[in-house]
Amino acid sequence: MKIKFLIFIVALLFSISKVKAQDPIFTQFYLIPETLNPGFSGSSEAPYAGVLQRIQWPSLDLRVETSYAFASFWLEEANSGIGFNAISQTESFNDYRLQQFNVNYAYRVQLSDEWFFRPGIEIGWGFKDFNFQNLLLEDQININTGVNSPTSIDPLTPNTTVNYVDISAGMVFNTRNSWIGFSLKHINRPNISLRDERNEPLEMLLSVSTGYEIKLLDMVDISFLPNEAKLIATGNYMRQGRFDRLDIGTIFDFERFLAGATFSMDVFDRTENSHVLTSINPFFGVRITDDLRFGVSYDVNTSNIGRTNGVYEFSLTYRFTSRYEDCYGCPTYIK
Fold first, then answer.
1. Domain that holds residue 314
2. What share of the chain is helix, strand, coil (3-state, %, to 5)?
3. What is the pLDDT of residues 174-197, one digit of tens each?
């Protein structure tokens, strides 16, 4: 039993190092930028809510499922946005589970006739959990009675749950049709070690995102295009520890339907066996009503990781009608 436990710990430590270095990420960040930056809280200047569901590598034993739910509100009198979000992630390989609840606040500052500045902060409470209940150690076995004890005094037995406070901050500069945002997550570097006597600070996550939208009729004169048809170019660079990722792509918004693709790349610190382009991520969306939007994306793996069956992601968002619908400072790309 000792050997079995030690093998499990070795596998667990490998998994922890991977989890510690990489936060949950979403392909459809351009639809729900709150996943990246608390500065986007309330940026639609109307009540806005939604959910994201991500299923990663369903054909492998490393299947990862991530759920995200959010709601944000705009307080015009206070020139502020507030938001709430919850995230849950599970991994099949080691019964790992992450759950976290966050509260966001952002303030709008008008810099010029066109530009706005939105600094934001996020404070959250989270816990990481590993399922050790299924382990049976040597000192739990009683050969004489044939009854196994539910507890162990083995010094290697770790805690099953880690609780922590998490603080993040960000800022967004935007006009009605463009934005650039910067965020830094885990500023306080919370300790996520399963051992009481150890300190394993969570790596900070840097994100730089940008986007620009343009009406298609300003580029081409095609009579069958809807008047409000748009092209949205977007990009996001993230770095956490020695891991980084760059996503760039375009989305075509034909009012009722949306379609496009992003490309995910490993920019720096690649090994000789790694790839620059790691996945191609087509996206399709539909506006069920003027305010209700559904989206689905599929990440096509381009590396040699094996037959993973890709990554599926589903989103559903609703933007409530607001009396500030035509406000000049509202970024239109998330409507």
1. 2-334
2. 10, 45, 40
3. 998 999 999 999 999 998 887 777
What total number of domains does the chain contain? 1
Could you give the residue ranges of the DSSP H alpha helices within the chain?
Answer: 2-21
DSSP 20: H
Tens digit of pLDDT for each residue in 137-152? Answer: 555 565 666 566 656 6
Phi/psi for 19 (5° steps) reads -65, -40
Token pair for residue 225?
């295009």
pTM, two decimals, is: 0.81
Joined together, the tokens standing for residue 214 give: 């343009």
How many angstroms separate the CA atoms of 65 and 55, rounded? 5
CATH number of the domain to which 106 belongs = 2.40.160.40
Asked whether the CA dihedral 44, 45, 50, 55 is positive or negative, the reply is positive
Burial class (CB in 10 A: 0-12, 13-18, 19+), 89: buried
